[in-house]
């Protein structure tokens, strides 16, 4: 019997086939393949133990570290799905329209990337000339720890340098040409933003406490009283505001204008965030293998969080949302208060 068009469209096999819909975005496939290749690279180059100085996670094998990284990616993908769920009925802001026309956007993007590279180079030279760890978006000892003590002067100088170079100077330059809304610094729906911040912050905090068990739980009362606000201010100045202004308020809308794809912008935002952690104290550049492994773990560590910050910014049009939902409080204040207590000998 010949099936009619209506019958063919309702055929059980055809209905089941329609439910399997693979992503069509080239950016998603490129990111997925790239992630798998980075995992394969680590397995091919590293031995049983990685060469990095990671006191916070001593005793972990290469395979265990890869498992940790992939679990971290899974958590971020869950949070991104949660963000989509909470914002699916919101009016989507036209972030690309906040950037200038393509030619000007390209010029400004190249200017920003060149300026950022110079900032990283100067941060390296300045810090090394003073006998300190190079200045990147994370203070030495953050996340993985370091056997070398970080002096209070180094921590304060790092925060001031990053705040001035990556936040204040770019903001002063672009604020003369663009409004707060064009720079994604103003909320279009404060209530919805507040709800989103609260839910994501609660979810990330739960992961920090229940799974990662931050060292903050082992601090005494006086250390918590002094260390919590100090860690918040230090990392807000040195890590959070520089990333927010430079990458998510200024660079991200221009990338979206150039690519025309929110997915590609999220991927590139994740790569940009990883690149600005180039001088993390644990990275090694002494050999080709060390360079490859350092680049691999910069991506495995920071690519997913960078994408999460991009998603929050693009879905809300407000770069401040990721600051409070997924950066300043959790993970930095929760994860790094003990490090700050140690630095300032509280």
TrEMBL record:
Q: Which UniProt keywords apply?
A: Membrane, Transmembrane, Transmembrane helix
Keyword Transmembrane listed? The answer is: yes
* Record-annotated membrane-spanning stretches: 28-47, 67-87, 108-127, 155-174, 194-212, 224-251, 258-279, 291-308
This protein is called what?
Uncharacterized protein
């Amino acid at each position: 019997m010949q099936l009619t068009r209506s019958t063919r469209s309702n055929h059980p096999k055809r209905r089941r086939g329609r439910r399997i819909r693979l992503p069509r975005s080239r950016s998603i496939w490129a990111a997925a393949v790239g992630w798998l290749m980075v995992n394969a690279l680590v397995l091919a180059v590293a031995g049983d133990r990685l060469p990095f100085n990671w006191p916070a996670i001593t005793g972990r094998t290469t395979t265990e570290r890869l498992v940790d990284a992939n679990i971290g990616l899974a958590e971020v993908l869950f949070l991104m799905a949660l963000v989509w769920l909470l914002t699916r009925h919101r009016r989507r802001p036209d972030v690309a329209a906040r950037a200038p026309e393509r030619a000007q956007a390209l010029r400004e993007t190249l200017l920003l990337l060149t300026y950022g590279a110079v900032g990283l180079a100067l941060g390296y030279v300045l810090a090394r000339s003073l006998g300190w760890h190079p200045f990147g978006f994370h203070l030495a000892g953050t996340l993985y720890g370091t056997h070398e003590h970080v002096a209070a002067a180094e921590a304060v100088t790092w925060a001031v340098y990053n705040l001035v170079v990556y936040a204040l100077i770019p903001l002063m330059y672009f604020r003369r040409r663009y409004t707060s809304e064009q720079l994604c610094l103003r909320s279009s729906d404060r209530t919805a933003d507040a709800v989103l911040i609260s839910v994501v912050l609660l979810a990330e905090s739960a992961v920090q406490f229940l799974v990662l068990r931050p060292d903050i739980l082992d601090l005494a009362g006086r250390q918590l009283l002094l260390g919590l606000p100090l860690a918040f201010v230090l990392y807000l100045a040195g890590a959070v505001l520089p990333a927010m202004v430079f990458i998510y308020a200024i660079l991200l809308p221009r990338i979206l204008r150039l690519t025309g794809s929110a997915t590609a912008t999220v991927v590139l935002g994740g790569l940009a965030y990883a690149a600005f952690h180039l001088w993390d104290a644990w990275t090694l550049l002494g050999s080709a293998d060390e360079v490859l492994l350092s680049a691999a773990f910069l991506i495995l560590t920071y690519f997913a969080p960078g994408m999460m910050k991009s998603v929050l910014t693009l879905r809300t049009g407000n770069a401040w949302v990721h600051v409070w939902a997924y950066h300043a409080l959790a993970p930095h204040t929760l994860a790094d208060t003990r490090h700050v207590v140690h630095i300032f000998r509280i």
